[in-house]
Specification:
The complex is a heterodimer of chains A (183) and B (551). Chain A is an all-alpha fold and 183 residues long. In chain A, helix 5 crosses helix 8. Helices cover 60% and strands 0% of the residues of chain A. Chain A contains ten helices and no strands. Chain A is globular, with a radius of gyration of 17 Å. The N terminus and C terminus of chain A are likely disordered. By secondary structure, chain B is an alpha/beta fold. Chain B has one domain: FAD/NAD(P)-binding domain, CATH 3.50.50.60. In chain B, strand 3 and strand 4 form a beta hairpin. Chain B starts with a strand and ends with a helix. The chains are: A mainly alpha (183), B alpha/beta (551). The interface between A and B is large, with 40 and 38 residues.
Amino acid sequence: MSFINRRNFTKTSLLAGGVLFFPGCIIKEQNSSFLFFSHDEAQCIISLCEQIIPADETFGGSTDAEVIYYIDRQLVSFFKHDSVIYRDSIKKLQKFCIENFDNKFNKLEIDIQIKIMEMMEKNNLNNSEWINPSIFFNKIRLHSMQGFYGSPMHGGNKNYISFDILKIEGLLRQRLESPSKIS
Amino acid sequence: MLHKNHVNVVVIGSGAGGGVVAKELSFLGYSVVLFERGKWVSYNNNSNDELSDQRNQILGANFGPDLIKNPRSFVNKFGTEEVFNSLKGYGNIAECVGSGTVSYGAMAWRFMKEDFKMKSIYGHVQGSTLVDWPISYDDLEPYYEKAEWEIGVSGHNKKNPFASNRKKPYPMPPFEINKEGKILEKAAKRLGWNPFPVPMFRNSKPFKGRTPCMRNSICVGNACPIGAKNGTHNTVIPLAIETGNCDLKTECIVSELVIDNKSNVRGVKYFDKNKKMYFQSSDIVVISASANETARLLLNSKSKLFPNGAGNNNDWVGRNLQSHAYTGAVGLFDYDIIDFDGPGANIAISNFSHNNEKIIGGGIIHNEFNRLPYQFSQIRPQGSKLWGLEHKKFQINNFKRLSRINGPIQEMPNFHSRVNVSKKIKDHWGIPVVQFSGKRHYLDHEHCKFLSSKAELLLKEAGAVKTWKNIGGKGQGRGQHQAGTARMGNDKKTSVTNKYGQIHEIDNLFVADGSLIPNNAGFNPSLTIMALGYWVANYISKNFKHLLTHQ
């Protein structure tokens, strides 16, 4: 039931102008603010992240938290070793979607996106030459969680969105802001 | 290579062991150079974010080391060498003045009498190098006391009936138990167990000019904003420097011990922060660089009499690597049980440290340190969705409703779990790096099952509506609490040092850190490492007095 609720909510909000789903990141991307992703790659990653931590009736999800910026930034620094698997996996995912659904992943209906992701998680993508999609899926799953629930200082968790959701802003925010950050 | 003025003692590493040794010997008048490869750090070096704190280390570690300059490798399941591409599994110990004592959770455990006599009590364990220590609890007791009073520990003197005897009470009273702790305390008593407050290196009252703890909810993995968490960086090291006899050299990495043809160490080679190499000569060298780095330095120091590394003629250096397999259970409550009073962990149970049926040793269990949002996102009941709306809802509904009971199991040491030095990989300074191989003894996982079942029992008794176990004990123990790689012993054929931390056959070379520990007990080892620092320093001060009169 909850999936249906969220899907309805998603559609409603898109129809209503999509305020939640057209966040600043897309605009900024046109100004070449991504360090690693191309425009097309970013659209694919944004869609994957949004299904990993989706917006619901009350609270925003990965897109609102700008999780894409967390992942983008880490792929040229701490997660440099993962840059190849990200690039390859996006290509493989888009190929699979075009061959099977005549469209890119990020253009598909949300319930189809979720189905595909469930198949990726279980290494069960039918008609695909992609043997181990779960390796990539687990990476982007963890990276999304980090970008959503970690500190905004690394990109992601925009406006402390997850701390507000968990009602711990008073507990964490002051202490996150107080020290001067080292590089 | 430039030569520095001769000193009495070189101490390598300023953590729990080295800080203590430097203070003890400089107080007595010995001239000391204390080497630290990191810098002074403070609260301002915290990110206060769990992704880069010293506990999670997903985006590096605030207090070092830097992975690029300090690579390490491991032998993978195919038998080939692989370099770590993140700090996961790296076996990290903080690289800063005070090392892990700056950012630790600060539990201040004494080991128990039984932990020093494991082989006598439990007999030979197939596939394990389990032994009796060459010293007893009673030998170390005065040094535990000294560590508690000089570094500063708060604790309850009577509530743990399993604690071995102490002559002097804790210097500070225990902390008040938090909401979760009170609920667990009552449940434990109903089970007939003996709950008590965790002893902590944190000030429960003003202590030696420093302020009491403010119960910061983000404590473990970070430095304290007000200096109420006690490590060597804010206690013994400043005192050592004040004597005028201790020269702390930060951002200096020791690459090699120089050992002559008469079996004496003459000093050390080191690089300063500009990567310039020097020779520091000394009468005595004490290595306190942590179990991984101490073994690396010994193995990298080859000489005519010790072609396989200093003290390694019997192939025991780097062997016996152990840490602690953490294990426990999780309980979900139908009300908010977590109040985020820092640091979180504060109630412990020692009923299962020994005297368990079919278990060799055991471990304490305690409620966990406060969990931050990312760490929480990785805790779910078995079979739960790991992403999507259901996962998010669980996070929102249960963030303050989940209690986790954990504990460190006493690992069974084994010969094949080890630190070696890589033949191929070198660090920023050109020094061969740590290479890990081997894994834990199979019994560790079995023992973890036992301790986890006790943790789950407690959560059920406390009223958890859903519980599940998380059972540790696989893989290799090499991270926090690392120990055993230069074990002390009476027989030089099966140990690296004698019972005073003195390397067999090199009379002026000592070890004073977790490397000495033959079996790591079922407790966090930092207080024991400090006590060993006092123990080793005491031996040096009594047997090298002639150095003082010749100055």
